[in-house]
Write a structure and sequence with these properties.
By secondary structure, the protein is mostly helical. It has six helices and two strands. It folds into two domains: about 30 residues; about 70 residues, EF-hand (Recoverin, domain 1).
Length: about 100
């Protein structure tokens, strides 16, 4: 009888753990741009040059605020003439934060 009483608790714990894992994987996908960076890094050198970045921006053209927010100079935070994965992640997270406000 004790086993039967524990089953719903175990099921709730498993459901909770599963939900937590799903949320974590979604957040992880969001944090790395959902694989966005690797899709646009055509030469696989670990950076987006201006041409690769322009291709990325072109994929977001359906948004009205794209020209203002997604400028190469703004995303290239360190000004080295190329966008690193971390710079793109930071810009994506900033964009999400901006949309929520």
């Amino acid at each position: 009888m004790t086993t039967c009483k524990r089953r719903p608790k175990v099921r709730r714990l498993l459901a909770s753990a599963t939900l937590g894992a799903v949320l974590s994987s979604s957040q992880l996908a969001l944090a790395d741009g959902g694989g966005t960076f690797s899709l646009y890094d055509a030469d696989r050198n670990g950076y987006l040059d201006r041409k690769e970045f322009d291709t990325f921006v072109a994929s977001k053209r359906n948004r009205a605020d794209i020209a203002e927010f997604w400028t190469f100079q703004r995303v290239d935070a360190d000004g080295d003439g190329r966008v690193s994965e971390q710079e793109l992640i930071n810009a994506l997270l900033e964009d999400i934060k901006r949309k929520r406000q």
